[in-house]
Amino acid sequence: MQQTPSRFSEILPAVLSVSATSAQECRLAIDQAQTGDWTQAEITNYDDNGMLSQHVDLKARNVEVKGPTQIPTLCEWYCSLLTGLGAPIVRERWGISGLRLSGTQLAKYEVGSHIRPHNDTATEFSARCVSALLYLNEDYEGGELIFPRLGATHRAKAGELVLFPSEYLHAVSPVLKGTRYCFVGFFLAEAFGNWAERLNQFRFD
After folding, report:
1. pTM
2. Residue 17 · residue 93 · CB < 8 Å
3. Of 55, 70, 136, 157, which residue is most buried, by most CB within 10 angstroms?
4. How, if at all, do strands 141-142 and 175-177 pair?
């Protein structure tokens, strides 16, 4: 696994792509993740009493996941990759300091799985500044990453790490064939400072 900053490309405004790991390592990760049960992903919203509530909503997020409790070694591997490779890119591209990681999990998208348009800073997640997606395979149909306000989609290669502002509206189209595996994680900023100013130029509201 690479542990030094790599050259990245800006595939869309403020959407960065970098080759992060090999297809062989991705296949090994998928194999290692098969032990144990997957959990249906939840979403977090405010209920009628203004309290935060987590619940399953298959119309909003029809995905199964495993986190550090189920796959600790794989999540540590992904966190190490984000720390060694992703964080230097985030600092170089956006000048954000005081980065922390959160929300690491592996998502499995089977036929029909999707996520409707959303941003990753909703509800109690306002400290998130950059979302990080590591694609483990590409042998599936559908499942494209969609940025509605950019009018664009992206189909990633196995081993590709995609970084983008967590405020960006994005979605995943339904998987039509095969199974899509993708690691998810978020960079949190202790001090927003320059980040807020830099992000303003990329708003598409």
Report:
1. 0.86
2. no
3. 136
4. antiparallel
Q: How far apart are CA 19 and CA 81, in angstroms?
A: 11
Residue range 102-140, pLDDT digits in tens: 999 999 999 999 999 999 886 656 788 999 999 999 999
Structure tokens at 70: 């189920």
By the 8 A CB rule, do 162 and 85 touch? no
Residue with tokens 């998810």: 184
DSSP secondary structure, 120-165, as one string:
TT-TT-TTEEEEEEEE----SEE--EEEGGGTEEE-PPTTEEEEEE
Rg (CA), the chain: 16
Q: How far is Cα 202 from Cα 199, in angstroms, rounded to an integer?
A: 5
